[in-house]
Amino acid sequence: MKRSAFIYYSLIGTAAVVVPSLRCSNNHNYLQVLRQPKFLSHICDAATLLYIGKGYLENFPLYNKEQLVNKLMKENGGKTISKNTGSSLITSLLDKKIKADFESGRTVVIKGWILAETEAQQCALFSLS
Amino acid sequence: MCTFFFIVIKSLSMHIDARNLENNSVIEGDICIVGAGAAGISIALEWINSPYKVILLEGGGFSYDDRVQELYDGKTTGQPYYPLKSCRLHYFGGTTGHWAGFCSTLDPIDFRKRDWIPESGWPINRDDLDPFYARAQKNLDLGPYNYSLSFWQKTHPLFKPLLADDRVVWNKIWQFSPPTRFGEKYKAPIVNAKNIHLYTYANVTDITANENTSHIKEVTIKNYAGKHHKVRAKIFVLACCAIQNARVLLASDKQNPKGLGNGNDLVGRNFMEHIEINSGELWLGRPDPLHLYCINFGITKVRSELAISENKQEENKILNGTISLTPLSAAKTMKPMIELWNDNDPRKSLENMKDGETADRKEVSDKHRSYQLFTRIEQAPNPESRITLESERDSLGVPRATLHWVLTPLEKRSIRKIHELLGQQVGLEGVARIKMLDYLQDENDNSWPSFTGGGWHHMGTTRMSGDPKKGVVDANCRVHGIDNLFIAGSSCFVTAGAPNPTLTLTALSLRLSDHLKETVKGV
Fold first, then answer.
1. CB atoms < 10 A from the CB of B397, how many?
2. Are A109 and B424 an interchain contact pair (Cβ–Cβ within 8 Å)?
3. Antiparallel, parallel or unpaired: β B216-222 and B15-17
4. pTM over 0.90
5. Across-strand partners of A110?
6. Number of domains in chain A
7. Which chain B residue is nearest to residue A42, measuring alpha carbons?
8. B12-98+182-271+459-521 topology per CATH
9. With an 8 Å Cβ cutoff, are A112 and B280 in contact?
10. Does A78 touch chain B (CB under 8 A)?
């Protein structure tokens, strides 16, 4: 095999392995970010997040994992979160969405916690994951 | 020589122990003030060196006496409450003998008619009381008459508000009296004043009016030495506290079986307290000592509580209340006040309270991530929340009081809504989250938890109104239909606001005193 051909096929081969795994990694990452409410994670332990998440699902039992993911990915100040969106951008978009929730009164009371709807849904997703 | 000085001093002193008077004495003066607590003493001080003879009657002596204190004993029904015997102090200086010194003003909205609060609306407004608040500050050894955050931030640079936007949640300033013990501070000025005649052990047991109950002729005083006397004056002022003012009016039933000033069955009704209760937790994104909100008893002169703006109260149709913050780690070790203040002896209950505060003092200056939220809120005027008389009588023959304390769903809904508004604001600014306690979580649950307490603030039992059908006293604190009987103190409050009542009742007493100075000229 000529040297140039070797390099070409090697690159193709590497790409064939790395790109899907990158996509897989991104896919994994976006779910990780979606299910982790940033502010709440700072002040609550995992058990409390789980407790809140279960509480949310008690109040809204029709939500399943897919619906919660869709809900969290939609309507983020005109932008939609996709599976390829980077972690920091997802966090930033969710932050804005949480602020907008508080601003417009889209709040819920779950197990006594006064929360933005978005962060409560993040807890719910966490409890289902 | 010593004997000579003793005689001179005794003759200059205008203090008389009514136990030592010849039985059936008749005492006469221009003005008779019944009760020597914050209200009665504040009025008496205003009359020193005036040309009028002022009779100041105090049921107790200059220190605690259990036989006198026992006269305050009574039953409580309805919402569980503190023992009535230990709620107020029955000696010269009154309950300032053990008060904690919390002071703030009522807000303008507190005086207004609020269509979502039954029986709200004073016949006076905040502007009417402002000059008297300024004077009352001095009686209570408070700082400048200024309750704005920006003013106090000039001298307290660490006063950083929790929220930048104050349009929904604002910072209501409290000032702290040392606390002034009226019995200690004002004993000398009162007993040394030539025209103020202080009678101790002079419990008013009956008020006698003329035949058509339009004018008070005299009051009867008794003590446990078995003596009884009469006091006659041109003007009488009841300043015995909200429970006792109502009690003596109801008990004075010789001419009218309903009692004096009670033609419209209002005396004793609308008893109000501040509901004071743990209500939630504040969890900060970053630990902060929150200097503006913390208190170190005996040291702190000024602090703030979180309050809801007037337009948000109106929009949400809620009562006025405030939230104070205590580091959660300290608060968790503190027992509810209703459990601590459980002894009939006020000295023992006070000791229990002091023991409960120890942890708080240690931790106040540290940075904390979590704080206990403690709500202090007015209760809506409610005719069913009331003082009545029981058949049992005290040792001086006066029927004992019963307090039937009743709360309504509005109080609970208001506490919940206050937390929702605060939760929304801290979330919006990204500084914290709020967690309400369990008892607030079900919107349809109107019950109260076992740790529900009050502030020992008794108000509203002789409420003020321009309309005799709606109030016991008029805007000048004169009992409707009786030309020379006035009432001083928090029993005249129409609504309670959030603040502890001492500053307001002192201001109201000074306003009454000014009015009496004009009135007495024409008598």
1. 12
2. no
3. unpaired
4. yes
5. A113
6. 1
7. B285
8. FAD/NAD(P)-binding domain (3.50.50)
9. yes
10. no
